Amino acid sequence: MLRLAVLVSGGGTNLQAIIDRIEDGTITNAKVTAVISNNKNAFALKRAKSHGIEGLCISPKDYENREDFHLALLEALKERSVDLIVLAGYLVVIPKEMIQMYRNRIINVHPSLIPAFCGTGYYGLKVHEGALNRGVKVTGATVHFVDEGTDTGPIILQKPVTVEPGDTPEVLQRRVMEEAEWQILPQAIDLIANGKVSVENGQVKIAE
Question: What does pTM read for this prediction?
Fold first, then answer.
């Protein structure tokens, strides 16, 4: 049974998609052990509580320096014997020590088809504003492993989403979540939980 920790800063819609897919059996061999947020008011923590999942607030604001914060975050993960860390709208830089300790065991969902509209500065609505300003006809979402770069880790799954005439960043954000993020993030977790994902020479291989 794969033990998940979901890290989130806000509402937790991707967290809800994961919980729903575990509860309906779409994701097998996995359970959410803990939800960790840097924001004590994150609605994601309420979502966790309503499903009987432990919710923790570990915020940089509560520590004298980043090193102490990073140590507390790592200790929380180790204490719960976490197998896979899922970043689902987590707006805090992941410490290098954590990436090294959980190499190819941290995944992130990004609301674009990487390498388009990703990297430093591209988060939240800024991704969709960038896509609309560029006039692309197709956008989407990507689930990837996390490495030391920003949105540069090996790509696990991608799903395209059509940009419609008259889209606003908010409308496009919602469609990308519904049509791509909420589908491929649970799918990636299920693949990993069932031993179907490996990384070779920096690229993901998915077994049949």
Answer: 0.95
**Cis omega before residue 115 (within 30°)?**
yes
Phi and psi angles of residue 206, each rounded to the nearest 5 degrees, phi first? -115, 120
Q: In what order do the strands lie in the sheet with 54-57?
A: 54-57, 30-37, 2-8, 84-87, 106-110, 138-145, 155-162
Say if CB 141 and CB 161 are below 8 A apart.
yes
Q: Check 51, 70, 110, 144 and give the catalytic one.
A: 110
Distance CA 31, CA 182 (A): 17
Q: Is 128 a catalytic residue?
A: no
CB 107 within 8 A of CB 156: yes
Enumerate residues 6+ apart whose C-beta is below 8 A from 195.
207
Classify residue 118 as left (phi > 0), alpha (psi -120 to 50) or beta.
beta
> Which distant-in-sequence residues (6+ apart) come within 8 Å of 182 by Cβ?
13, 14, 17
Q: What is the spatial distance between Cα 3 and Cα 1, in angstroms, rounded to a whole number?
A: 6
Q: How far, in Å, are 28, 81, 205 from residue 144 at the CA level?
A: 20, 22, 12
Mind listing the pLDDT tens digit for each residue in 20-65? 999 999 999 999 999 999 999 999 999 999 999 999 999 999 999 9
